[in-house]
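As a next step, we paired sequence with structure tokens, yielding the entry below.
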Amino acid sequence: MNIQLRFFASVREKLGVTELIVSVPEQIQTVGALRQWLTGRGEVWAEVLAEGRALRTACQQQMCDADTQLREGVEVAFFPPVTGG
């Protein structure tokens, strides 16, 4: 399944990427599983997306939680709790 990822504010700055399209394994079915899977991309990914770290997510431009189900082609965004202009 292909997922479009978007990163904002300090998350974008630390990862050095604004958006990315990834092909995720079929066992990745939720936003929480996607976040955990992304931590395996390397040290900075593990640090920025670590479980327990304050981070907001949106799916299809709607705030969501870790249990939100994914489907082909969705956009998932990661951003800190407070962002500025």
Remarks:
- DSSP finds three helices and five strands in the chain.
